[in-house]
Amino acid sequence: MAHADNLYIAASVADAVAVLADRAGTATPLAGATWVMRAPLRREPLAHSYVAISQIEALQRIDISEDEAVIGSCVTHARLAEALAGRGDLAALATAAAKSANPAVRQAATVGGNLCTADFAAADLVPALLCLDAAVELEGPGGLQRLPLQEFLSLRHALPVGSLLCRIVVPRSAARSAHARLPLRKAGDYPVAIASLSIEQDDKGIVTRAAVAVGSVEPVARRWPSLETALVGRPLNTAWIGVQAERLAEEFTGRDGIEAPGWYRVKVLPTLVRRAVEALSAQTA
User: Fold this and answer.
1) The whole model's pTM is what?
2) Cα separation of 1 and 263, whole Å?
3) Residue 187 and residue 106 in contact, taking contact as beta carbons nearer than 8 Å
4) Which uninterrupted H or E stretch holds 278?
5) Taking a C-beta distance cutoff of 8 angstroms, is the pair 269, 249 a contact?
């Protein structure tokens, strides 16, 4: 393991956790570094030191079974999109990974970085994982801890010293899923709003379970329970669902940003829900 005053290259998860704990909150894990590299543009200070984790083999794994997909935190967006291609229940996550940012960033940006960057409201993977009921696994001085993703999002600013996000666990199901995003420009732009959708239907086409997650509209991505409730018990109808999304969109308080005002993010949300439903329908066409 190589190290310097401001950079330590960890050889294992245990090694990384030990160094993060020893440096008592002054060190930050470093993998793809796509967010860190742009810190000067955001006029943000760099961390006192970094613990590089991208060479840890255990964090590079993708294991997919009939029951779950287990994704290492250092898996890049590009690798994730390739590994999940053609799996209908995980299509939202595959699309999110394949469409985020631009090709160069997708080759470097990691799943863990996308989830841990608390100040990045427009992260594509977060709503996709939320609608798939994902959980995260953290390693720390106290051992292994598994948390539902929504809980992790609320705690990530104040995790115990030495904590390291190691794996994301996504349950497999009979559902189909889709992901829709609206960037202001086609390439290299953060999305104004994101809608991710996972649906299960019976043999008559009636929705028996719905999960909807929204990203980039508010500072933190979250599920949309009222729309989920409205969808259950009915056939999957794009126009009707769009009307329900318009009716319920006022539940969101859009964040103002350089790329779009808050009211616009909320206004386009029903359109993205319709696009996600259309994508679901196209999967069975």
Assistant:
1) 0.94
2) 49
3) no
4) helix 262-283
5) yes
Q: Residue 140: count other Cβ atoms within 10 Å of its Cβ.
A: 17
Pairing mode of beta strands 191-201, 176-183: antiparallel
> In the structure, how many helices (H) and strands (E) does the chain have?
10, 12
Beta partners for residue 198, in sequence order: 177, 211
Rounded CA separation 79/72 (Å):
11
- Helices 91-99 and 77-84 pack at an angle, to 10 degrees, of 140
CA 196 vs CA 38, 141, 149, 236: distances in Å? 27, 34, 15, 15
Q: What is the pLDDT of residues 220-244, one digit of tens each?
A: 999 999 999 999 999 999 999 999 9
Return the axis-axis angle of helices 262-283 and 91-99, rounded to nearest 10°: 130
pLDDT at residue 46 tops 90: no
Beta strands in the chain, from DSSP E residues, in sequence order: 7-9, 27-30, 49-52, 62-64, 68-72, 135-140, 143-148, 164-171, 176-183, 191-201, 207-215, 222-223
Query: What Rg do the C-alpha atoms of the chain give, in angstroms?
Result: 19
How crowded is residue 202: how many other Cβ atoms within 10 Å of its Cβ?
8
In the DSSP assignment, the letter for residue 47 is: P
Q: Is the backbone of residue 242 left (phi > 0), alpha (psi -120 to 50) or beta?
A: alpha
Residue by residue, DSSP assigns 83-108 as HHTT-GGGHHHHHHHHHSS-HHHHHH
**Secondary structure of residue 143 in the 3-state scheme:** strand
The residues that bridge with 200 in the sheet, in sequence order, are 209
At 81-121, the pLDDT tens digits run 999 999 999 999 999 999 998 888 899 999 999 999 988 99
Domains of the chain by start residue, with CATH: 7-171 (3.30.465.10), 176-283 (3.30.390.50)
